[in-house]
Amino acid sequence: MRQYAGNRIGLAVVGGLLLALAGYGWLRAEDKLPGLSPRAKVLPDRTAAAVADQPWALWLVALVLLVLALITLRWLLLCLGWGRRGSRTGTGTAMLCIGLKDVQGLSRVSARVVGDAARLRITLNCPASADVGSVVAKLDREVVGRIRREVRDDEVGTVVRVHVRR
User: Fold this and answer.
1) CATH of range 87-164; options 1.10.418, 3.90.1720, 3.30.300, 3.40.50
2) Do the Cβ atoms of 47 and 54 come closer than 8 Å?
3) What mean pLDDT do residues 53-77 have?
4) How buried is residue 162: exposed, middle or buried, by Cβ count under 10 Å (0-12/13-18/19+)?
5) Where are the domains positioned within the chain?
């Protein structure tokens, strides 16, 4: 799906950068870099002196890096799908889009099968200009029943969430 391409590219870039920095740090610590003496400085003299004068500066850097690591971990877990309930059903999502093709500006349309009891969860976002009453009526009369029959059976409990954007 296209919407996850940005997350995958972002994770690949961040992961590659962190891997390169870790490799450089390891090579530098093992004195494996040619043309660089083991006593070569990492920071310029002025920066090293400023950091040495302010003992809280290193703690601040450590805190910022910890927060960045936690944000990145959360991003990764969300990209992997943790925290989401159920599994997507492409057939249900396609049927939902086809059933509501008259509504312009729909976004975040999804259908999920949740739990062992096989409940169905349908979510869609409508623009403010859409006639929400007709969308709900069409969902109730036609679309949800078709999705139920296609995905599981006609007796499946279904929750439909319609969000209207401003």
Assistant:
1) 3.30.300
2) no
3) 88
4) middle
5) 2-80, 87-164
* Tokens coding 130: 């859409």
- Measured distance CA(22)–CA(15) in Å, rounded: 10
Express the helix, strand and coil content of the chain in percent, nearest 5 each: 55, 15, 30
For the segment 69-85, what is each residue's pLDDT rounded down to a tens digit? 899 888 778 777 676 67
What pLDDT shows up at residue 90?
Answer: 81
Q: Write down the H helix ranges in 4-143.
A: 5-29, 45-53, 55-80, 90-99, 132-138
Task: Report yes or no on whether pTM surpasses 0.85.
Answer: no
Angle (deg, nearest 10), helices 90-99 and 144-151? 160
| Tens digit of each residue's pLDDT (9 = 90 or more) over 85-106 | 777 778 888 888 888 888 777 7
